[in-house]
Amino acid sequence: MGVFDETIVVIKDEEPVAVGTFARRAHLVNEDGTAFSGGSGASDVPDGSVTTSKIADGAVTSEKLAEGVIPEVPAAPTADTIEGATETGRSLMKAESAEAARTAIGAGTSSFGGSYNDLTDKPTIPEAYVLSAATAEALGGVKKAAAVADATDDAVGTLNALLASLRAAGMVEASA
């Protein structure tokens, strides 16, 4: 079976001719003999006919669209292209695990079991402070004296009860 070369003249505004089943190579030219280019490129495309699936399938490509129809879309930012990111920040964004993230920020891992006694280089915590008792020579803590009834007819007895209460509380030294 051979291949036939023949010139087919494209005549615009004529009724279309059905294509037969016999395929052959052809050179298309316009009526004036210039190469046929497919027209001006302007045609009516039905609304909704260009779909994402047609673009995904390759039926509609950027080569088939007029220049500037699809704007240049910048590449998605990556950890390496984010302006102002530090090396630590880039490493953290690239981390694929919690361990890698800790390493990126210098945290490492911890073997701390939760007990204060497991820690090393702990500060020394002083013993609880004990307030010393007040003396005639030094300030200190004193106890609250016991209640003494108000003086009545027996003023000496009431005064002695007050002194005994103050001595018992450590506020007054014992009598000699």
Keywords:
mainly alpha; 176 residues
Strand order of the largest sheet: 1-2
Mean pLDDT: 76
Rg measurement, Å: 51 Å
Largest sheet: 2 strands, parallel
Order of helices and strands: EEHHHH
Helix content: 10-25%
pLDDT < 50 runs, ≥5 residues: none
Give the structural class.
Answer: mainly alpha
How far is it from the N-terminal to the C-terminal residue, by CA? 145 Å
The beta-strand count equals 2
Outline, from the CA principal axes? rod-shaped
Number of helices: 4
Strand content: 5-15%
Report on this model:
The chain has helices spanning 52-57, 87-94, 98-104, 155-168, and strands spanning 6-10, 26-30. It is built from 4 helices and 2 strands. The termini are far apart. It has a domain at 132-176. The model has no long low-confidence stretch (mean pLDDT 76). It is mainly alpha-helical.
Secondary structure layout:
Blueprint lengths: L5 E5 L15 E5 L21 H6 L29 H8 L3 H7 L50 H14 L8
Parallel strand pairs: 1-2
Give a short synopsis of this structure.
This protein is mainly alpha-helical and 176 residues long. The protein has 4 helices and 2 strands, in the order E-E-H-H-H-H.
